Amino acid sequence: MKSFSSLAVLTVVLASPLPSAAEQVRPNVLWICADDLAPYAIGSYGCRRAQTPNMDRLARQGVRFDRAFCNSPVCTASRQSFLTGMYPRTLGVTALKTPLPESAVTLAEVLAEAGYETAAFGKMHFNSDLKHGFQTRLDLKDHKRRFASRPVPALPKDVAVLPAWRPFKDPASVWLNSACLPMGARESDMPGTYFAEEASRFLLGEHRRPFFLMVSFYEPHSPFHFPLEYRGRHKPEEFSVPPLGKDDHQQVPAIFKDLKDHEKQGIAAAYHTSVEFLDANVGRVLAALRQANLEGNTLVVLTGDHGYLLGHHGRFEKHCCFEQAVRSPLIIAFHQRFPSGQSTEALVEFIDIAPTILSVCGVAQPRSMQGRDLTPLLMGKAASLRDQVFVEYAENEEAMVRTPQWKLIYTTGARQREDGYATDLPLMGRKVRLYDLQADPEELHNLADLTEYSARVEELTRLLADHLVRTARRPELIPKTNDVHRLLSHCLKPDDVTGP
Predict the structure, then answer these.
(1) For residues 369 and 352, what is the distance between their CA atoms, to the nearest angstrom?
(2) Distance from C-alpha of 101 to C-alpha of 304, rounded to nearest angstrom
(3) pLDDT given at position 154
């Protein structure tokens, strides 16, 4: 049994003054999500290499969040977190293979209960066959079924294409596409194009009820897919290799240590090319929204599921708490309610998105949601809503707390990680890192061991421990102690509802 009901929603509605006829028209919701999309690859966030006119246009039409953070830098945990508005640790989904529990209350279920038509096209990472409130679901198997009966188009004989993706089996230079190779398909046959076209068909159809449509693209996740028509858009030499900090050498996963600089540049070229293909499909969806004359009454949300390290700190992944891994784009546009072309540096967590959507739609927020309504920021009535944000990666027993100026990353150093990104060094034990993000935005200089910052380290470590205790799924198991390190050692261990 879910923890919400029609009666609960009705009670909230009737407790307020009756709306006018115009106010009774609830907005549609279109949420576009990309996999591993980092802000630095989008024009409106300052990128000067990739061409992203469609995402840039959406940013001009809405509000761009410059400090929006996922709550876990791994696909499953992040996605199930923002879809339920719950911290991954509270939800009990922190590992890549953990399925979303059937008992979890999702945004789609709440909106469906309120009378919305719900649909999701593309990657959701439920890790089960459950639909979790989406009445219509399409994914890769549907794309495969669609094209199964069609003859395979002949490819140009002189064009090399991506081999089968075999991460951790092939060298990193191969599965990270350092050769910047296209997928062996034309644009019209790509899965991303299929999802965009199905979403367009949905938008252009007849709607008797308001809808919640989620379009979730697999791009630009490695091996950074793009079609044949996009080959050669970027050359490796366009990109520079980010510098390493003093501590980075002992933290670089072993699988990346053999990458040469020219291979790292090629990976960057493939990533940015994939972002451009993603942008084209975002454009297809937004064009259908305009063609259907639905822009005026549709709340549009654009996010990544987390960020991506593209050579930063010597890594090509997420799975850690560096800024490029945890900061992700968030753009929200709604012509009827919010100003256009605005940006904010307010700290935001992705668990805030679902409560915000429900607020805009006039639907009651279930008690399970832990996020905050962002509409005061969207309407320019507040400069900030949070003093800090929290991110956790349980597989490495690692978490962070970030304020506008400071970031503390705490790792127990007691876990042999099994995600493929281990170093070739022995476990080093507890590691605390402190960065002054105003003076050191690239997080290259760890200040935690300097005496003059000991009070800052103590303050932020306590803040992090208090957060982990407060959001624990099973608080009765937490040790009764004031020892902050003992608390963190306990709380940072994975504790999922079901095993992977």
Answers:
(1) 9
(2) 23
(3) 80
DSSP 166-214: -TTTS-HHHHTTTT-PPPSS-GGGSHHHHHHHHHHHHHTS--SS-EEEE
User: What residues contact residue 244 under an 8 Å CB cut-off, 6+ apart?
Assistant: 252, 313, 314, 444
* pLDDT class of 149 with cuts at 50, 70, 90: confident
Predicted confidence at residue 498, as pLDDT, reads 80
Sign of the four-CA dihedral 177, 180, 184, 186: positive
CATH 3.40.720.10 domain range(s) in the chain: 25-378
Q: Which pair of structure tokens corresponds to residue 316?
A: 């090509």
Contact 35, 19 (CB under 8 A): no
Which of 274, 161, 171, 172 lies closest to 218, judged by CA?
A: 274
Distance, CA of 178 to CA of 235 (rounded, Å): 11
CA distances from 59 to 170, 272, 370 (A): 38, 19, 26
pTM tops 0.85: yes
Distance CA 92, CA 495 (A): 6
pLDDT given for residue 2 in this prediction? 60
> Reduced to 3 states, what is the DSSP secondary structure of residue 489?
helix
Question: Which band of pLDDT confidence, cut at 50, 70 and 90, is reported for residue 21?
Answer: very low
> In this predicted model, what pLDDT tens digit does every residue of 251-267 receive, in sequence order?
999 999 999 999 999 99
pLDDT at 24: 54
The residue with greater pLDDT, 134 or 249, is 134
As a whole number of angstroms, the distance between CA 490 and CA 119 comes to 39
- Would you give the distance in Å from CA 88 to the centre of its chain? 13
Segments of the chain assigned to CATH 3.30.1120.10: 389-491
Tell me if 125 sits within 8 A of 217, measured CB to CB: no
Q: Which of 86, 50, 30 is nearest to 334 (CA)?
A: 30
Rounded Cα distance between 315 and 251, Å, is: 9
Q: What CATH code would you report for 25-378? A: 3.40.720.10
> What pLDDT score does 500 carry?
41
What is the reported pLDDT for 6? 40
For residue 108, pLDDT over 90 is answered with: yes
Tens-place pLDDT, residues 357-400: 999 999 999 999 999 999 999 999 999 999 999 999 999 999 99
**464 close to 399: Cβ distance less than 8 angstroms:** yes
Task: Choose among 166, 334, 176, 190: nearest CA to 264.
Answer: 176
Q: Count CA atoms closer than 13 A to 185's CA, side-chain side.
A: 17
Q: Evaluate whether the domain defined by 389-491 bears CATH number 3.30.1120.10.
A: yes
